[in-house]
Amino acid sequence: MRRFINMLNILTISLITLILISNKIILLNEEILILLCFIMFFLLAYNYTKRSIYINLNNRKIIIKDSLLLAFNTLITKLKDQLILEKKSKKIKKNLNILQIYIYSIVSQIYKNLSKIILQNNYDLYTKKLIIHIILNNKW
């Protein structure tokens, strides 16, 4: 039906053009003939290629839409992963700060008691040596 209407429009335009030419309202020279050929070529090309152009553009639209959705989903996934890593790094930093406090307190306690510990170890060692020496000397 639509094709019939298009052909009817072309026929009407052609008849009007022929009437205008026969009454010498439109003079046919080279420029007018080239213009008419160009207009007819444009109309025919449009009528015969509009469906394939529509299908081609629609396919491109679908491809672009799918690639944008894929890129958007990838971006969301990476942002979620980054957020999880940031939360984990905050926890690790907090735990490291707590560990630093504990290590500092242990090292300070060791430093305070180091001389006592060394003296106690030396005292125990020399006491054992003295006892062994006394035992060995008494036996002989």
UniProtKB/TrEMBL annotation:
Compartments (UniProt record): Mitochondrion membrane
Pfam families assigned to the protein according to its UniProt record, in alphabetical order: Mt_ATP-synt_B
Transmembrane portions of the chain: 7-26, 32-49
InterPro entries, alphabetized: ATP_synth_Bsub_B/MI25
GO biological process, one term: proton motive force-driven ATP synthesis
Entry GO CC: mitochondrial membrane; proton-transporting ATP synthase complex
GO molecular function: proton transmembrane transporter activity
Keyword terms: CF(0), Hydrogen ion transport, Ion transport, Membrane, Mitochondrion, Transmembrane, Transmembrane helix, Transport
Predominant place of localization: mitochondrion
Name of protein: ATP synthase B chain
Organism of this sequence: Plocamium cartilagineum
